[in-house]
Design a protein that fits this description.
The chain is of the alpha+beta class. It contains 13 helices and 10 strands. Bound molecules: glutamic acid.
């Protein structure tokens, strides 16, 4: 049931970015600031991820007019990991609609770690949050297609359309995670036992592991984010990927849950929806303005890229992106009240 059936007109985020040259300058500045931070550790619970060069650092801002600003290693590929959850969620919302997906997968933070089994048990089998593994598995299970192969094709095609190019599978990461993802297999089977996954749970884990193993760059993440910032149209290819309402719904979920157990701190400091992944990527979305993609493999204890957070925080401030920041409206004929 929709608890807010009378909600009608949708407001949109307003304002614009400074001119082209200034954004370019600020992206370089954000990169330089992030470089100064060498804290954090590279993820190693998926063995193939441990091999990443910890010094890599790329930043990209994709404006909703299709303009791109890059600094550092913005063209280096890495596995998208958890960031895929945001985009698969959008594709499933597009297919099933706002209310059905909220009822099925939830939109609230669990307050527990991203791969928690106890969170599922505490909520009588409801995953609560599409950005933790249980909720992401339940979401991937809802992807259109009669067979696992058709579902994978839909995920691969959908994520590629967000990026504006055909994304490739990282075979090494996929093989490595497939060997070590016993916990995700357990989660999927637990969800099946609660009736939350109605297809073969192990096939769902395989599709999920593939979606996490797609290779992207910071530039791709920025374009994917800019698609969510642009009412669902990829600003580089001009293709509509999802509806504007699906963008709004997805961004609301990311604002609440995108940065693991640090989602509240992130929103407090940065004031934008974002999603991070354990390979070191972060996508951030400034609705109506731009997508930001960053890549740097060293992570904080919650699993978020340290340099990526630094650079994004800087960009949010200097570009005026925080959705909670306002200024007094100048009244006609006078100074602000
Ligand atoms: N594929 C990873 C897992 O399921 C994704 C984790 C993440 O990026 O948070 O463990």
């Amino acid at each position: 049931m929709d608890p807010y059936p009378d909600a009608v007109a949708q407001a949109v985020s307003t304002g614009s970015l400074p001119g082209w040259a200034r954004v370019d300058e600020l992206v370089l500045e954000a990169h330089t600031r992030g470089l100064a931070d060498a804290d954090g550790t590279v993820a190693d619970y998926i063995p193939a991820l441990a091999a990443a060069d910890p010094e890599l650092f790329g930043v990209c801002v994709a404006e909703v007019d299709g303009g791109l600003h890059t600094a550092g290693d913005a063209e280096v590929e890495f596995s998208i990991q958890s960031i895929s959850k945001a985009f698969v969620y959008a594709l499933v919302c597009e297919r099933l609609g706002h209310v059905a997906v909220r009822e099925r997968v939830g939109v609230n933070n669990t307050g527990l770690s991203f791969n928690s089994v106890i969170a599922v048990e505490l909520n009588a089998g409801h995953p609560m949050n599409p950005m933790v593994n249980a909720g992401a598995l339940a979401t991937t299970a809802l992807v259109d297609g009669g067979t696992p192969a058709a579902q994978w094709a839909a995920v691969h095609d959908g994520l590629s359309r967000f990026a504006g190019r055909t994304l490739e599978l990282d075979d090494e990461v996929y093989a490595s995670e497939s060997r070590t993802n016993g916990r995700n297999r357990a989660l999927a089977q637990l969800l099946e036992s609660y009736g939350r996954i109605e297809v073969d749970p192990l096939a769902v884990v395989d599709i999920y592991t593939r979606q996490c193993s797609l290779r992207v760059t910071a530039r791709d993440l920025a374009v994917m984010g800019a698609t969510l910032a642009d009412g669902g149209v990829n600003p580089v290819t001009g293709e509509r990927v999802v509806s504007a309402q699906v963008c709004r719904d997805t961004l609301a979920v990311l604002a609440a849950t995108g940065l693991y157990e640090r989602s509240g701190e992130w929103l407090f400091e940065i004031g934008l929806p974002g999603k991070s992944g354990v390979a070191g990527g972060i996508v951030t979305v400034a609705p109506g303005k731009a997508g930001i993609g960053t890549y740097a493999p060293r992570l904080d204890r919650a699993g978020n890229s340290v340099r990526g957070q630094r650079a994004t925080a800087h960009l949010s401030r200097v570009l005026g992106l925080n959705v909670f920041a306002s200024a007094v409206h100048p009244r006609a004929g006078g100074t602000p009240r």
